[in-house]
Amino acid sequence: MTLLVSRTVRSLLRKTPFSTTGTTTPIGASIRTVTTLQETLAAQVPEKQKKMAELKKSYGSEVIGQVTVDQCIGGARGVKCMLWETSNLDPDEGIRFRGLTIPECQAVLPTYSGKAGDGEPLLESLFWLLLTSEVPTKEQADSLTADLHSRAKLPSHVVPLLNSLPKDMHPMTQFTIGLAACQTESVFAKAYQDGVPKNLYHEYALEDILSVVAKLPEIAATIYRNVYHDGVVSQDTSLDFAGNFCRMLGYNDPSFDELMRLYLCIHTDHEGGNASAHATHLVGSTLSDPFLSYAAGLNALAGPLHGLANQEVLKWIQELKDKFESEGKPVNAETITEFAWDTLNAKKVIPGYGHAVLRKTDPRYTCQREFALKHMPDDELFKVVDTIYEVMPDILKEHGKVANPYPNVDSHSGVLLWHYGFTQYQYYTVLFGVSRAVGGLSQLYWDRALGLPLERPKSVTPEWIWSQVQK
Ligand code: CMX
Q: Which CATH number covers residue 395?
């Protein structure tokens, strides 16, 4: 694995946001020493475009897989038909972000203190890594923080719109409404209407991508404060993205800030085939702008088999506790086993367990467990989650249907939030949604930079399949 560490180049020119084509303004006395995100990407795009053209020209007709009837009926599991730059998911090892595992990211990415390894990575560091495949310097991560803060203001109609929504509307529904309403700010949509040529799409897409990521915390926090508190959202833009988001939500605890940094980093990306990333990529391929593309991704995330599983886990644990406490029984391995079988026998899923690709414990689960062991080893709910982890794989193996009997990311995230008093579990998927934007939209940048076309797989009728198999 090669780590591309970015060069800090002295630049005598300040470039405009659309400077990747070279529009420049001399800045005289003020000399920058930090290569911006836009400059870093602009330097990479021509080479990547060249490699892509070469791949298509020289190897376009090579076969890289086949499709079985099972795969066609079964949700395209394992069909290799999507290009994804930003991350790759190995069934046994788990996720790698631009080649780096989660522990490797924790070791090399800049943190709030500035020292890699001293705390959790900044979301901005991971955003930079996903977009550029380079590990940023702390200065570069900080420049991205400042850029995101500068784009965070919501259009004036959005907060009144959110305030008008019923408090019992699911937070994820409110979240997609809030994001879709920000689409009035899309520079990509405007540029398209103005006839901008295709080879410049990615520059406008990047503007929108940064704006979407920047605006999500205030949309999310407004929903949280409206539904569960007083509707007031305070900010502290001297902090990083995650720290400021915690203040917006109403939390002021450095340990919770660290949890949010970890949480936001590990939920960003999980290669391309998962429903939220795929929906973003699919809708973006129609040249729908990044605001609308990611609103589609959020709607996919809101399904209980995907991102909503994090709220379902907490609901399951609360129901388990209520049942046995009312019966005067302790929550232990025995009662958890009983409750798990009740769930399975009722033909329901055990939330937080299983995965379409993974075949081992999700490293996103493991790093959250390590956070709990470090920050809250005696937490009562953490011990319950740990006991579930002890017994559930064997139960699911005995049940016999599940391809992966081990926990996924959603199995652990809720208990960490709960520890800090964040008990409104119906809201948890919104936090996942703030994070997933960073992965799905980093890929969307490369979709446009590489000129990827409209996504349009071939569907077939059952009659056609019958005619093929009976030949
Ligand atoms: N509990 C009970 N049954 C489960 C199960 C679980 N946790 N996971 C899978 N199964 C069942 C499936 O429903 C399927 O049953 P049928 O044959 O009756 O349809 C069978 O086992 C085989 O499924 P699989 O091949 O193991 O899993 P899939 O790739 O079809 O689905 C997933 C993957 C995640 C949807 C599934 O494991 C599940 O429903 N898990 C619980 C929900 C969850 O935690 N989702 C979050 C995933 C991570 C994320 O995206 O955020």
A: 1.10.230.10
Domain tally, the chain: 1
**Residue numbers of the domain that contains 396:** 313-419
Residue 184 lies in a domain: no
What stretch of H or E contains 59? helix 37-59
- State the helix-helix crossing angle for 275-284 and 428-449, rounded to 10 degrees: 40
Number of helical (H) and strand (E) elements in the chain, helices listed first: 20, 6
DSSP letters for 151-167: H-PPPTTHHHHHHTS-T
Where do we find the tokens 């409110």? 174
- The answer, yes or no, to whether any atom of ligand 1 lies below 6 A from the CB of 307, is yes
Tell me whether residue 386 is in a domain: yes
Active site residue 306: yes
Q: Ligand 1 atom 32: the closest Cα is on which residue?
A: 355
pTM above 0.85, yes or no: yes
- For 342, residues 6+ apart whose C-beta sits below 8 A from its C-beta are none
Instruction: Evaluate: CB of 305 within 6 angstroms of ligand 1.
Output: yes
Does residue 323 fall inside a structural domain? yes
pLDDT 10s per residue in the chain (471 long)? 333 433 332 232 223 333 333 333 333 344 556 899 999 999 999 999 999 999 999 999 999 999 999 999 999 999 999 999 999 999 999 999 999 999 999 999 999 999 888 999 999 999 999 999 999 999 999 999 999 999 999 999 999 999 999 999 999 999 999 999 999 999 999 999 999 999 999 999 999 999 999 999 999 999 999 999 999 999 999 999 999 999 999 999 999 999 999 999 999 999 999 999 999 999 999 999 999 999 999 999 999 999 999 999 999 999 999 999 999 999 999 999 999 999 999 999 999 999 999 999 999 999 999 999 999 999 999 999 999 999 999 999 999 999 999 999 999 999 999 999 999 999 999 999 999 999 999 999 999 999 999 999 999 999 999 999 998
Give yes or no for residue 403 CB within 6 A of ligand 1.
yes
Let me know if 202 is a catalytic residue.
Answer: no
The reply to whether 406 falls in a domain is yes
